[in-house]
Model the fold of this input.
Amino acid sequence: MLARIAEILDLKSQNELLRRDLAHKFQNIVGKSKAMLDIFDMIQTVASARSTVLLTGASGTGKELVARAIHYTSGRTDNPFVKLNCAALPENLVEAELFGYEKGAFTDAKKTNRGRFELADGGTLLLDEISEMPLNLQSKLLRVIQEREFERVGSSTTISVDVRIVATTNRNLKEYIADGRFREDLYYRLNVIPIYLPPLKDRKEDIPVLVEHFIQKYNGENGKEIVGVNPQTLRLFMKYDWPGNIRELENLIERAVVTAKNDRLTEDDFPVELAVGKLDDGGPGLKVPMKLEEGSKYLILKTLEYCNWNKTRAAEALGITTRTIRNKLAEYQQTKAGSA
Ligand SMILES: Nc1ncnc2c1ncn2[C@@H]1O[C@H](COP(=O)(O)OP(=O)(O)OP(=O)(O)O)[C@@H](O)[C@H]1O
Ligand SMILES: [Mg+2]
Done:
């Protein structure tokens, strides 16, 4: 009997530990940098409130992931998480999508439709790329945020909702305000709880855990058993600037996991872009004497890096065509694979 009780207590505490672990990981958000730990805290703290959250950060830094984590940590999980990308729709459709419309409100309104605000009632509405919200709708949005009330297009009946709004942007809204493209009053209404996601290059301590996380994820999806990356590759990762942030890292790992021949990923499983780090590492840089081919490779890769891998700008700077750059990159990739 005592043994049974001990066993149950043990299971209970194990369960508690697992639960806390899960709560901490927030649905697959990983990170151990100070910035990410602060963000985990922030999610936990603000989740249960209804206050509007404004998530800022460059493309691919994890804004949507954090928005979902806030929803799934809140008491709103029995109700939907609804998303609207303000940039993806023409101006006249955004209003109908947000607020819904009555049958006959416009030519294509064959039947009454509920908008995202109604669909998200009791839950969370993610307004993606809020900077692109048309000005005339910004005032309507302001009203919903203040009063939680609106009307469907073509209707005069006021609808009340209980919706938690999370907005994201990778633009500088202050500049948009200065240019008259974004309402200042709306900005202050949205910016109640600001959360900033720094670019990956400013939190490189996260790279090893992210790599591990994505390898596990894509092992699972593809029935692979990749055990990790070799130390040289990790060093290249730590040197690279990741202009596409975590999305870029995730895509590279996915491709490498799927195509790798061996169970440990090496430099050859990744694009030549990453090897620029190595040029600085042990490489000679430009020196005399040196093979012309080697020198031009260095110059092309360094110029590309300087131009943030914008091939058009790099071509301009080098005085060659973008086509030549593409051919060269393909060639470098080839020799790399060939030497493996
Ligand atoms: N900390 C993290 N841990 C695990 N995965 C992450 C993390 N941050 C981002 N990701 C993954 O990276 C990808 C990009 O993240 P997400 O879509 O949230 O970026 P975003 O900031 O919304 O980008 P965009 O501005 O381009 O919409 C997603 O697949 C997401 O799951
Ligand atoms: Mg996004």
